[in-house]
Amino acid sequence: MAGDAVPQGEQPDGDLKRWVRAWLQERDEAAARALMDALYPTVMGIIRARRMDAAVEQDVAQEVFIKFFEKLGAWRESAPLRHWVARIATNQCLDRLRAAGRARELRLADLTEDEARALESSLEAPERLADEETGAVELARKLLARLTPEERVVIEMLDMEGRTATEVQRLTGWSSVAIRVRAFRARRKLRQWMQRLGDKL
Which of 41, 78, 139, 187 could connect to 115 by a Cys-Cys bridge, CB 3.0–4.6 Å? Predict the structure, then answer.
């Protein structure tokens, strides 16, 4: 059936389960490498979506796979392995963002000309902040860095990646109420900060 097709470049679940068993029962190094190769795109997709420094990305990926192999014995075969590793990756990203702390208050003097133009444009039409223009991307990154890690992740997932609340719930383990509250607070903060900066233009 077409709906059962494996996305191009992804290993079928049967292969993943076979490699998991080989690792857990025999500590088969080839199976461990095959698992890492198959799951690497999923892990890096989650990490890169958090917009961390490129130098940090590989460290976080390494931490994800360490946790993955430490906890693999607790994985239930009824749960999709990619969903399970995606949650580990999301939690590792949150841990890294918490450790980094929040950025200091953003001032107009901190913005480049492109970012100031993006701010002016997004005050007229807020959806423009999600544009791929350099100024808008950098402005969004600076504003998001001021949110709590949980608020930042929920806004990135919902508003920038276009994920549903159900997907966010699956990736984070948060309740639907917590997701709605965090998204509401984060959007309110972003609007206030943008308005405050805009008043100084």
Answer: 139
What is the distance between the alpha carbons of residues 179 and 166, in angstroms, rounded to a whole number? 10
The count of domains in the chain is 2
Q: Is residue 151 part of a domain?
A: yes
pTM for the whole structure: 0.64
Integer Cα distance of 98 and 117 in angstroms = 30
Q: Residue 4 has what pLDDT?
A: 35
Q: At 118, list the tokens.
A: 């993006």
SS3 at position 128 = helix
What 3-state class would DSSP assign to 22? Answer: helix
DSSP-assigned states of every residue in 156-194 = IIIIIS---HHHHHHHH---HHHHHHHHHHHHHHHHHHH
pLDDT score for 37: 93
Question: 61 or 130: whose pLDDT is higher?
Answer: 61
Give the confidence band of 145 by pLDDT, cuts at 50, 70, 90.
confident
CA atoms within 13 A on the CB side of 78: 0
Assign residue 13 the CATH number of its domain.
1.10.1740.10
